[in-house]
Fold these 2 entries.
Entry 1:
Amino acid sequence: ILDAARDRLAAGVRTVLFLDEIHRFNKAQQDALLPGVEEGLITLIGATTENPWYEVNAALISRTRVMVLERLEHDALSALLDRAVGAPNGLAGKIVLTAEGRKEIIARSSGDARGALNLLDAASAGLAAGGEVTAEIVARAAGGRGTVYDRDGDQHYNYISAFIKSVRASDPDAALYYLAAMLQGGEDPKYVARRLIVLASEDIGNADPQGLVIATACARGVEFVGMPEGRIILAQATTYLALAPKSNASYTAIGAAMAHLNERGARQPPHALRDASSRNKRNLGHGDGYRYPHDAPDAVLPGSLMPEGLEDLHFYDPNDRGVEGERAARLERLRQVEEPGEDPQPF
């Protein structure tokens, strides 16, 4: 093809090369296109249903313009169905597409033109002249599932992202919608459960420590029971976590601590806190000055246990939501203690 394009170009004729499903070319095959694109021998148009940034070589992507074709909206699909029903060489005069049938096709096609036309064709098959395509007939023709989903592509990431963000935003209805779409699309329920465990710590944390217990129990239950009953366990955990008070204080705290270490390195713990399990270590001063908290009133020691010079450094900043609000008040009192038992309020 490239050789023929070079001959055409010499005669003043340019070549457009259209490659459907370009992601099916392996790396070496895609690399073979680079010289033709770079030399201007061809105008390359590649079509793919996959994410091109993942499936097409970076060198080829950098020499092209990526145009994303979104799923069709309701009005566009409706116009498409009008043309199909009214086409002289198609279904014109043979069937009647009812309003409810139209809505059912549009809803089940999930923005896919080919899916809508195929479903219309299947629903109208076997109808007598003038027969009506109703919502019930469309549902039977669809054969059940109407969810467009891929477990390894963009939809996998888009739906799990929407699911997590809905739980984070305390919207149980939206979270259940995306959960149902994933499960109906064949998503691995254990994957969803694992994401809930992360969310329970990242977005709820100590505002409701029970959230992590629920999420962990959910993962175990899904693994033990399997599907389809596992959907009930996932739904319970999802609604609980969606309605739980939210805090990302622990998530932010560990991020701040790691950023500090990356910037300034790690200092050694004070000698009092170092391992003193052997005589050699004790001879080096390990454990010198260590005070056993349980010997102090309320088992609280004054001051900071941070390395020397970092005594005033704080990472954890709890909010006042849920259980964490109580912990925040306790932490504030703890940080103000200068002598054991000085704080008049019990810990």
Entry 2:
Amino acid sequence: MKPAYPAIVASLTLFFCALPPFPVVVHAAGEPAGVVKLPPPVLDGGVSLEKALSERRSVRQYQDRPLSLADLSQLLWAAQGVTGTGGKRTAPSAGALYPLNVYVVAGNVSGLPAGIYAYDPQRHELRRIAEGDARPALSAAALRQSQIKSAPAVFVISAVYERTTVKYGERGIRYVHMEAGHAAENVYLQATARKLGTVVVGAFDDDEVRKVVSMTDGEHPLYLMPVGQK
């Protein structure tokens, strides 16, 4: 966008920054969808950054055991948790515009009914957007990769490019992809520190993943990350 329109740029920036980080879902009766308050994140887990870096590996096979809600909470916080005033998060974001959304497709998480959930970083809670185990459908959308179906939970990281491109133009697309990489590496390192396994999956049908997760218009899936005990 040309700098001759500063007022328009400012107005659009305010508009997109005001958008909710995920779709607000209500039942037909007008009641809000199920909300799950997550355990607070641990800020000192006792594993050094250097140790987590040295032990980080991609893990595609997981034990047939449930993922704890505490582990799920910690991984979500690592991906996009709020860490400071002004809503600053664990992963750096160009212009602090935060284009990423994080969903959880849960199938075997202790204390969490199977379903699809959207993560709210500001409140550190999950909001259910669909009930039932969607891992088989998500696996089908990901070229039937078995780790998507067998993991207790799968993170889906998506982006709304307009939250960033409204300020940075087409260059903002690159910034969004950089940010998604930051968030995914955070999940990798946090999983390693908690003796969990994960892997980045990029081979999937975008439209099918959108359908499974019920993403909003203009939202683009970037990563799938199954997580579980290795």
